[in-house]
Amino acid sequence: MEKSLILVGTQWGDEGKGKIVDFFSKKFKAVCRFQGGHNAGHTIYKEDEKFVLHLIPSGIFYDHVSCFIGQGVILSIDSLLEEIKQLEAKGINLEGKLRISRYCSLLLPIHAKIDQLREDKKNSIGTTRRGIGPAYEDKTARRSIKAFDLEDRELLEQKLKDLVQYYNFQVESIHDSEPFKYEEVLANLISSYEEASRYFGDVTDSLEEIYEEGGHILYEGAQGTLLDVDYGTYPYVTSSNTLATSVGVGSGFPKSIFSDVLGVAKAYTTRVGAGPFPTELFCEEGEKIAELGHEFGATTGRPRRCGWLDLVALRYSAKLNNLTNLCITKLDVLDSFENIKVCVSYQIDEKETSFKSRQLHKVEPVYKEFRGWNCSLDACKSYDELPAEAKSFLEYIEDFVGVKISLISNGPNRDDLIHR
Fold first, then answer.
1. 299: pLDDT confidence band, cut at 50, 70 and 90?
2. Same domain, yes or no, for 342 and 247?
3. Domain region containing 69
4. E strand spans, 84-184
């Protein structure tokens, strides 16, 4: 590996990034999360044992890899501690391996409660109900509790009193719910921080040191491009910038922007929650994809909406992220399809249009159909061993998007990867 690498999702998240991050992690000196919160979930199999990581970078399974959580991440300390305990119960030691930025804005149980109350209303957008949106709102409104605030008790108490008062007005006047108890919120926060305090430090200096010593860093993105708060299908998006270009701010290390960028996409498309989805299937083919792909959210367990691969959206993502390479996952899910479709253009009133998130709910997809390969890809260990129909499918994607496909996942296991 000659350069550092940014790994991002190119669809609506759930592209199978966990396995790909896990594969690359062992090749790097460090792995850094740079945005999102514990609404993200990376599923990783280690020696046939399943792990779902929500905050801790996937490199934690390798002794030689340092793991960082950058300041762009909204941090739930309670969720972090729960994850640490689960890993330690499996014999994975985090001491000296995990460092979290003191500049992280904290996600409190208050935020999760507010998120749930909002989602119970009729205008739900399908969040994970974990408090990500309200926590990012506080960050933007400059009322967040930062991790470093826990080092100044007087400042913490004043900021937290103001925050509890702000949300108590909402829960009582808008949601007709029980108010939060300041003393209880404070005590829980202090207790959680004391348990996690040894993991906090200066991430920027650490990444700079690794970089200057010639070490390469893997930057691990969460969610997907089409969920970006600025460039995604707004308002049905997450609350952070999910693009590769946000890595400099989120990691606190500006030189990260000089990394290569690997985009991960499924051989079809899925989406969780509400929002436009041009290639969504409401038929047996969609149900078949969902069943064969085990399409349930790693974080919430919600069933994912399934559809054909949207190449218009994928090309849009490739340009936004300045992708240098592409990885296609779950190719094996399409093994038993007689015919496979990809969306090659959009139409509105029979006129072709490009990807515009504000119009996506109006577009009609135009498809190109491929003959399926109708055989298992399990035994394929190299690109040359793939059936001609599978290679034709992949090469069309590559040509349409304009980015080389360098990695293909043809099964759920760690080693089910084809390099090209």
1. low
2. no
3. 5-101+200-262
4. 98-101, 105-106
